Amino acid sequence: MQTASPSSGVLAGIVVDDSACDVDDLSPCGGVRVTVPGEQRWDELVELAVGSEWPGLELLSGVPGTVAEVVRANVAAHGQEPSGTVASVRTWDRSTDAQRTFAWGDCRFGPGTSQLQETLPGGRGRYQILDVTFLFKQGDLTAPVRDAQLAALLGVRPGHRVPITAVRSAVLADRGQEATR
Prior knowledge:
The protein is α+β, with helices and mostly antiparallel strands. The chain has a single domain, classed as Uridine Diphospho-n-acetylenolpyruvylglucosamine Reductase, domain 3 (2-Layer Sandwich). Helix content is about 20%, strand content about 20%. It has helices at about 40-50, 65-75, 150-155, 165-175; strands at about 1-5, 15, 30-35, 85-95, 100-105, 125-135. Strands 1-2-3-6-4-5 form a 6-stranded antiparallel β-sheet, with helices on one face. β4 and β5 form a beta hairpin. It starts with a strand and ends in a 7-residue tail after the last helix. Mean pLDDT is about 90; it is low at about 5-10.
């Protein structure tokens, strides 16, 4: 397990558990579990994921907002949504004044929506997202590109896989943002 340190390359407050891939682990290499504070800037997480070769968020490069905001709204871009990598969401339930953790299946993710958008009378959000745990595969290629517009942007035919770093750069350029800061 790895937590943030100045030399680790991991952002402050993010916890990375890649122990399923330890040499002495008896199971085949599993995913990397990454827990991220809700207030973390979304694109910083995407940049970390791409740089760490954790595919699953690269098409969401440049999406504005915090991890909490993007996950709550289950924002989609080029056919990819954060719900594809979310394992669980830890919240503060304002109606019960208690912590509540939602497993992926309890989040009721849909296109542009989730259980986490529930509001209280008066319009205030019921759930404050404290942190989100993602489960990433490891690798440097995307899933097969299904979105025709994205395929054209990348100069490939639909169905091809491309390096996640190339996708991030292309998506950021398409959004009019710099690929590096």
